[in-house]
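Example record used in the benchmark description.
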Amino acid sequence: MRVVGIVAEFDPFHRGHEYLIRKAKELTGDPRAKAVIVMSGPFVQRGNFSILPKHTRANQALSCGADLVIELPFTFACAPSERFARGAIQALYKTGIVTDLAFGIDTNDPGLISELAFTEPDDASIKEHLSEGLSYPAARAKAVASAWKETHPGASEEQISEVLAALRFPNSVLSADYLRAVRALGAGFTIHMIKRTDEKSASDIREILYGTLSDGAQSVSKIASSLCGLLPDSSLALMLEGYGKKSFSVPDRDSYMRDIALALKTRSTEGIAYMTDGLDGFLKNAFDRNGYTDFNDACSRTLSTKHFILPRSLRATTSLMTGQTADYIGNEKNVRYLRVLGFSPEGRYCLKVMRKCARLPILTNPSDALSLYSSDPALRDQFELDLIANNLQAMYMGMPHDYEWDVPPVSVK
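Model output (structure tokens):
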């Protein structure tokens, strides 16, 4: 049996995600192929919280072709692409059952992604581009392109343009990090790179969703009308069901940003993860200068510059809000458990096999972690950080504190 692993955020689960799962299973060549998803929990890679609770997003995925969903711990989910990718690939590898890896790419040339993944840029070249005022990701991309040209002296201008275009896509950077993580771990997965569809992206859908709230009212019918056709019907239905039952609300990003501003005034930023290179002073000064602003205003005027790109600032401020330290992320390089969020009947079988061959503890409920606390302090620290992050998100979504202790894994029929 082939089991294809997919790294995802599903924020929210849209038609492009449905296509990715279906296509990934097809490419294994096994009609019985199963899809195991490792998915971000309450916070995502760009540093902000997800717009839906993790169990709802897991349910969306399971209703649209996924078989088993496990959670990527917060410290890897809300992290730069290299750490994000390593944690996710490690989690899939440690299941002991994943044979294939599939991910979406933005170029028609998968071979180019493979080449760029293992093209090492020169440090001096990166520094040179940084001195030109470029952000680190942009400087590194230019340095990679330069290194690639040196190994392809006969490359045409069109080929060079394709390389630069590929490097401009964040997903290309992430794809390259997946490939490097697979090699570093010796995972031996069969790789499937799948061209992304032209469907609306998750970021587009999130902004459409927030656009429906511009008048301050959260109308389920208005949300349904604005998102109809952008998400699979079952995915949209699960989202609307949660809003309709008031199980959760659309995250209050403005309140979160105001609380970040207050935290920067009242808490010490010393030793907080990602608050390096003067970012802490920059953020404090920026918020003092601009005052308490709404989310979009803060992102455009306060949190994003050429030197400090928005995701880095958000990861730093989220680390401040959760208490994640630089020492912790410097020392913690490994995923410590496999937290099960949901499964289909086929996924239940995968879980049964995992219990025999997984190389990490399998947690189906938060209480499972408690029994391991005394024997595994590293697991305890990682799981407690997950609990803090989950409660932080719940605060801005109208959900009870510690709600996840009462939520079992999603089981679909």
